[in-house]
Design a protein that fits this description.
Largest sheet: none
Helix content: over 70%
Number of helices: 1
Strand content: under 5%
Structural class: mainly alpha
Number of domains: 1
Length: 66
């Protein structure tokens, strides 16, 4: 009976280790996804800022011509 208890204990420990690894991996994937989304959002913001600046500069040049 004692061996069965040890086997059960080891199985339980292995399951706990496996589950901890799965949780850590999931958290890492979530952090990576959040970082990608943040970079993408910032890229879109920069693109819009540059487009707005281009329009503003073009408006200034047009005003100077008239």
């Amino acid at each position: 009976m004692r061996n069965a208890e040890r086997v059960t204990s080891v199985k339980s420990q292995l399951l706990d280790i496996y589950m901890s690894m799965e949780v850590a991996e999931h958290e890492q994937r979530s952090r990576s996804a959040a970082q990608r989304n943040l970079r993408a959002r910032r890229g879109i913001e920069l693109h819009r800022e540059f487009k707005r600046l281009e329009r503003d500069i073009a408006d200034l040049v047009d005003d100077e011509k008239h």
